[in-house]
Amino acid sequence: QVQLVESGGGLVHPAGSLTLSCPASGFTFSRYTIRWYRQAPGKEREFVAIINPPSGATNYVDFAKGRFTASRDNAKNTAFLQMNSLKPEDTAVYYCNARATGSGDYWGQGTQVTVSA
């Protein structure tokens, strides 16, 4: 059974930090590209970051550059998104996605991040 279970969200003050985790099971995690997305209330889901196998090379949308860091631990089948200098506009549900061409395309259930004073 494939599972992606995001955790680590919560309420944080502006300029604070959070690290999201996305442990995976049921597929060969190390072969899958991991993407992070977010969806704010009333808005469409948007791409945040990507981390590729096996090199771990990353890329980010402009608003995440310099503040967010995506990483993965293939030995633990887990992806991470470290978020620093959080802003109120970062408030959203954050999702991890695992995708491999010709294989699967899997989503977690999301974790709420709220940035508020």
Account of the protein in words:
The chain is mostly beta strands and 117 residues long. Helices cover 0% and strands 49% of the residues. It is built from no helices and 11 strands. The protein has strands at residues 3-4, 10-12, 18-25, 33-39, 46-51, 58-60, 68-73, 78-83, 92-99, 105-107, 111-115. Strands 2, 4, 5, 6, 9, 10 and 11 form a 7-stranded mixed β-sheet that branches. A hairpin with a 6-residue loop joins β4 (33-39) and β5 (46-51). The model has no long low-confidence stretch (mean pLDDT 96).
**From the alpha-carbon coordinates, what is the Rg to the nearest angstrom?**
13 Å
Helix content: under 10%
Let me know the average pLDDT.
Answer: 96
Question: How many β-strand runs?
Answer: 11
Structural class by secondary-structure content: mainly beta
Strand content: over 45%
| Bulk shape | globular
Q: Count the helices. How many?
A: 0
Low-pLDDT stretches are none
N-end to C-end Cα span: 40 Å
**What characterizes the major β-sheet?**
7 strands, mixed
Oligomer: single chain
Question: What is the string of SSEs from the N terminus onward?
Answer: EEEEEEEEEEE
